[in-house]
Design a protein that fits this description.
about 70 residues; mainly alpha; about 0% strand
């Protein structure tokens, strides 16, 4: 997929100084950012489930279900 983005000149220059493959660099950075977002959401979901007691369900069962539906497999 092709995506266009505007970034500050100094950021673009720093990336070009680090790598010859800017596309791969940006793709890696975006994947890392998405992983951080997903981990943060998972932590929030776990804390919410733990704080509510899971609505009468076993917390470990809730955690297993969350893992099944995540990209962890």
């Amino acid at each position: 997929m092709r995506i266009s983005a505007t970034i500050p000149d100094e950021v673009g220059e720093a990336v070009k100084a680090e790598t010859d493959n800017v596309s791969a660099f940006v793709a890696d950075a975006l994947e890392e950012k998405l992983a951080r977002i997903r981990r943060r959401q998972a932590r929030e979901d776990i804390l919410e489930a733990a704080g509510t007691g899971g609505g009468g369900t076993d917390f470990n069962d809730t955690l297993r279900q969350m893992r099944r539906h995540s990209d962890r497999g």
